[in-house]
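Team,

Forwarding the record for the chain on the shared tracking sheet. I've put the sequence and predicted structure together so nobody has to dig through attachments.
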Amino acid sequence: MAGRKLISSGSSFEKLAGYSRAVVDGDWVFVSGTTGFDYSKMAIARGLAAQTEQCFANIRAALDKAGSALADVVRVRIFLASRKDFATVAPIVGKHFARIRPANTTLVTGFVDPRMKIEIEVTAKRRKR
C-alpha cells in the first residue's frame, strides 16, 4: 500500500487549523488528537467517561475511513486535564485495548477548550485484509 490520503471528520476546525482528522501514509494511519466532541452535533458531553467513549467512537470512524481498525493500533497517546482523571479513564481505555495492548503514553495537559477533559491520538498499521 502506498500513497498519502487525508481523512476528514467534517469538522470546520480542520480547515481553520490546517490539519486532517487522520493521514494515511503507505501502511500507516496517524489519527490526530481526538476529543470527546460529537462532530455530527458539534456538542460535547460534560462527563469524562462519556467524552472518553466519544473519543473512541471518533477514532473508530477515522480508522474505518482509512481502511484500518482499532485492532490495528500500535501506539496511543492520552492527554488528560487532571491527573485524578486517570482513575476514570484507565478502565475505559483498558476495555477498548485489552486485547490489542498498544504502546501507551499518558500526559496531563491543558486544552484549548475548557469543556475538553481528554484527547486521544493513535497510530495504526494497516493490515492487508
